[in-house]
Amino acid sequence: MEWVVEVKGLVEEFNGRRALHDVIFHVGRSEFFEFLGSNGAGKTTTIRILLGLLELTLGKALILHGGYGY
Questions:
Q1: For residue 25, which phi and psi values (nearest 5 degrees)?
Q2: In order of start, what are the domains of the chain with their CATH numbers?
């Protein structure tokens, strides 16, 4: 399957505190994806990384085969 969103091993830290730890998910073409979690779970942080608004600490985030990783 062709992935349009691919996230592997996403790690994000703020001031030495880990906000995301080893986040992994894929979204295929024509698939629906729902992003749920409790307050403070890292949903907004993950979306900001995917949009390029935050630099990720470690991992890979790709949208339509472009993206960045460390």
A1: -165, 160
A2: 3-68 (3.40.50.300)
Spatial distance between the Cα atoms of 7 and 4, rounded to a whole number of angstroms: 10
Q: Please work out, in degrees rounded to the nearest 5, the angle formed at the alpha carbon of residue 60 by the alpha carbons of 2 and 42.
A: 105
Backbone angles phi, psi at 61, to 5 degrees: -135, 115
Phi-psi region of 47 (alpha: psi -120 to 50; beta: other; left: phi over 0): alpha
Helix (H, G, I), strand (E, B) or coil at 15: coil
- The radius of gyration computed from the CA coordinates of the chain, to the nearest angstrom, equals 12
∠ CA(67), CA(50), CA(27), 5° rounding?
Answer: 85
pLDDT in tens, 14-41: 998 999 999 999 999 999 999 899 998 9
